[in-house]
Amino acid sequence: MTSAETAYQFRHALLRDAAPLLRLGADVLRRSGRPRESEGLLTQSLARARRAGDRLLEGRAVQELATIWRETGRTAEAEEGFGRALAIHREVGDRTGEAMGLANLAIVYRTMGRMAPAEELLRGAVKLFRQMKSRRQEGVVLSNLAIVLKITGRLPKSFTNSASADSLALLRRARAYSPA
Question: Exposure of 165 by Cβ count < 10 A (0-12 exposed, 13-18 middle, 19+ buried)?
Fold first, then answer.
């Protein structure tokens, strides 16, 4: 291997490996109420993932940017971002990312009052999480689906208590098998 090839591989590794660290820092900033700084780190992470040609990391960075846009009221940007991230997750075969993308896009649609597509996306996310045996995420998405059904007047009162109990049971089982 020539020194030029070695330098290229080293540069590529630096670009690729810095992206997740930037995303981690961005998550800490977002959760501590500093979305602007978080968005800046995610933008850097996205640029590095693109330069490294890492579509998986690119999809995750776009999805996290879309989360910030949703949380800061930039609904149109969030809708476009989640749609882009969803396409990338599907392209690279990232089923967890795809399921999260479906659920996040559904929340945007629910916020916009677009209940039919929100319901469809949530049902798709439930199906994927169920296939992956991700009980905790399945329970969270089922709760969001129940909200959509309640808003549209299609959640029978007799179902509400049993649905809540089912969701709680799923969450309890998930916690028993998940690290704290």
Answer: exposed
Model confidence over 26-40: pLDDT tens digits? 888 888 899 999 899
Alpha carbons 54 and 65: distance in angstroms, whole number: 17
Task: Specify the 3-state DSSP secondary structure of 115.
Answer: helix
Which residue's entry shows tokens 């969701």?
167
Query: How high is the pLDDT of residue 27?
Result: 83
Q: How many residues does the chain have?
A: 180
Q: Show the low-confidence residues of the chain (pLDDT under 70).
A: 1, 3-17, 156-180
Q: Which residue type does 143 have?
A: S
Q: Which residues contact 91 (CB under 8 A, 6 or more apart)?
A: 55, 59
pTM for the whole structure = 0.77
User: What residues contact residue 119 under an 8 Å CB cut-off, 6+ apart?
Assistant: 106, 145, 148, 149, 152
- Please state, in angstroms and as integers, the Cα–Cα distance from residue 134 to each residue in 95, 130, 170, 174, 179, following that order: 11, 6, 10, 8, 13
Distance spanning both ends of the chain, measured CA to CA: 45
**67-97 as b/e, with b when 16 or more CB fall inside 10 Å?**
bbbbeeeeeebbbebbebbbebbeeeebeeb
Q: What is the predicted pLDDT for the residue at 178?
A: 45
